[in-house]
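hey team, just a heads up i'm posting the complex here instead of the shared drive bc the drive is being weird again. everything in one block, sequence lines first with there labels, then the predicted structure for the whole assembly after. its two chains so it's a bit long, scroll down
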Amino acid sequence: MAAPRKLSMKQRYAALTHDLDWDFSYVDNAEAYPYTTFEGIKIHDWSKWEDPFRLTVDAYMKYQAEKDKRLYAVLDSFAQGQGHLSLADAKYLNAMKLFLQGVTPLEYQAHRNFSFLARHLNGPGPRFAALCQSQDELRHAQTEIHTLSNYNKFYGGFHSWHHQHDRVWYLSVPKSFFDDAVSAGPFEFMIAIGFSFEYLLTNLLFVPFMSGASFNGDLPTMTFGFSAQSDESRHMTFGLEAIKFLLEQDPDNVPIVQEWIDKWFWRGYRLLALVSQMLDYMLPRKVMSWKEAFELYFEQQMLGGLFKDLEYYGIRPPKHVQHAIDEKEILSHQVYWTLYQFSFAAAFNTTTPDSEHLQWLAEQYPDTFDTLYKPLWDKASRMVEGGGRHFARALPQLCQTCQIPMLFTEPGDPTTICQRHSIYEGERFDFCSDGCKWIFDREPEKYVQAWLPVHQIYMGNCGGPTVPDVLAWYGLQPGDNGEYAGSQEALDWAAWHTTSHAPAPTPVAGN
Amino acid sequence: MSQTTSTRPVGVDLQESEDSRAVVEAIEADNPECAVQHFPGLVRITSPQKLRITRESVEERLGREWETHEFQLAIVSYFGHIKEWDDDEIIIAWDH
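-- predicted structure starts here --
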């Protein structure tokens, strides 16, 4: 075939992105791009933004189509082969319920905001990268929904994730995080999501999690996870390019970017508190502990690698990073203990760790587990044996910034609950940590508007004054919530694995 | 323990798959100082300072044409900075 000589990747990239751009002759630039000045960021030359992936639209479509083909082949064979029966245990799916309710809607939000950037950034390079990312995020939302819909045929907790994302108390944590990002300017959004979330922290969310899916027999999730994560590498690059570009464009950008890193590291880290308990408590077969994942993916790779690189520009590690490091021994235990007590109002189940699990936790956390947390679980087990599974009876106070119940402890003192507050226009606002208080104090006019689920319940905005009223408003169905042992799901699972005939599970409502 | 650009590791996480096995072997051959670790479903390769993935080396092991864009099907995550990604090679390294 006598095809004309192919352009090199470099030439193709230049031809299909920069060369397709044009200057406006009858509209003022400031009018065409109205959002890129108000944040105080100074950009002198947009052409300096290079996408190292040199991705062009033809290559993008080709490889994305291939990724989808591979994923859907796995989904089909899993569904056809009753793959759900080969999970490590049905309770593994609690992690996936939380993922679908908490993370999938964020993918969709990311899709929307990157599409906004694809229109509103001045340079063709970042506009095209943002367009690809916008498409990726939509693909992620769709493939996650498709993947996990297979489980909705057999298990509770998967049927109303979208409805629940906007209403349920623990889901206001991820929702408000992303609302905060999309209501910021485009540059802050790039540092918030592109850099702090995608580059600094995403490995902590996805990599051990997908490895966990692999280890627990959840092939579809592993496959969509890796499929999504292969895009994620491009997103990490976008985030890293964004920060380097801003820092190189003008020295005045440095302090602005530093404050965004300080803010968004802490916002993202607090969000990952939910992930910490998934790793340590929700996966029946463990891949790595939160502490190990944090040390590997954050301390070694980011503090030891990335921040040494950013030092060159005058950027230092995030302001409250030491607090996060100090919490690695206690974080997941405090979070799961809280979820355990409030799971009557959650769209997933919780249970007490069994003896093998307790042993693993003690090995992973030799300095804290046996002294601080094992006694709690021993007590919980005694109560269960006595027929009185413990649930909290009052609603928790929430942090005004991260919206997590005030469950975290004082730095250096794991037995005293940490509580900070600020007075703004005569009203008192409470926080779980110095990090969250600092974030509020920078922009109180933003955070006083927080939709705090507990406040909303007391204000009568969540279906009614009683617990059943609120749970109905959340869209919970019997079996979605509460204790795992003895639940419909646990009973079904046991029956499916003891009978010799194929299971005929009743589809749950909403399917 | 201060590390300079010349010793700070960079790395990449790849999916464990038929195709990426050849990619991993190529990376091992091209980066003699690299270390390979296996996690469920994943292969993690780290190397001091710099990691190179070359088309030639992958094609030799795969026995077919392989364009560097195809690396996107294997990569799960990385740390470092993508310094170069062209028709012949991909280089991950820190800048400073």
